[in-house]
From TrEMBL:
Keyword Lipoprotein: yes
Name of the protein: Ras-related protein Rab-39B
InterPro entries listed in its UniProt record: P-loop_NTPase, Rab_GTPases_membrane_traffic, Small_GTP-bd, Small_GTPase
Keywords, comma-separated and alphabetical: GTP-binding, Lipoprotein, Nucleotide-binding
UniProt-listed SMART domains: ARF (SM00177), RAB (SM00175), RAN (SM00176), RAS (SM00173), RHO (SM00174)
């Protein structure tokens, strides 16, 4: 059986942030287990896939869309927002401007996908460059709270918190699925399922009366 068929849910996730903050390095470390000191800037959108077992016998396929941070690609990358269940907001801890632009990236996604919800995580990247830090942890945590997101600091170079960051996001999407705030749909590619719905809609009292055979 092909590996790609061995999943129960597929979550589509988009990565967002300024150019050179390390979005591609993070995904390459997580999905392929490697770190490259220098990577070419993403042109348009790149694609990564990773499989996780979130719970025993519950296999999730994570489909990552790695978007370019340059303005000239924005019209291309926006088209990938609408079909995303998760958003990875990445800034460079040594680059103050990349942190200040996070609200813009978040707002752009929200305005594109509304009213469809998106689960976000805020990542402060390049934590190995502590001596060059320009953004404090408490300040970043405050921003994350205002965006209804979790915050974590990572380093693709040292592999610090890389797995943990994507675990948090995956769990957040799954919780939204279980709560019913997100649902698989043939008209939306954010979540695909090979299982029956986790939450069955409750039948309203008037529907029960209408359907009664007594």
């Amino acid at each position: 059986m092909a590996v790609d068929s061995l999943w129960h849910y597929q979550f589509r996730i988009v990565t967002l942030g300024d150019s050179t903050v390390g979005k591609s390095s993070l995904l390459k470390r997580y999905a392929e287990g490697v770190f490259l000191d220098s990577m070419n800037q993403t042109v348009g959108v790149d694609f990564y896939v990773h499989f996780v077992e979130l719970e025993p016998n519950l296999r999730i396929k994570l489909q990552f869309w790695d978007t370019a941070g340059q303005e000239r690609f924005r019209s291309v990358t926006r088209s990938y927002y609408r079909n995303s269940a998760g958003g990875v907001l990445v800034f460079d801890l040594t680059n103050r401007a990349s942190f200040e632009n996070i609200r813009n990236w978040h707002r752009e996604v929200i305005e594109t996908v509304a009213p469809q919800p998106v689960v976000f995580i805020l990542i402060g990247h390049k934590s190995d460059l502590e001596s060059e830090r320009k953004v404090g942890q408490k300040e970043a945590e405050k921003l994350a709270t205002s965006l209804s997101a979790r915050y974590i600091e990572t380093s693709a170079k040292t592999n610090r918190n890389v797995k943990e960051a994507f675990q948090i996001l995956t769990s957040g999407i799954y919780e939204s699925l279980k709560s019913g705030s997100m649902r698989p749909s043939e008209h939306w590619d954010g979540i695909k399922s090979k299982l029956p719905p986790i939450i069955q809609p409750n039948m309203q009292p008037e529907e029960r009366i209408k359907n009664c055979q007594c």
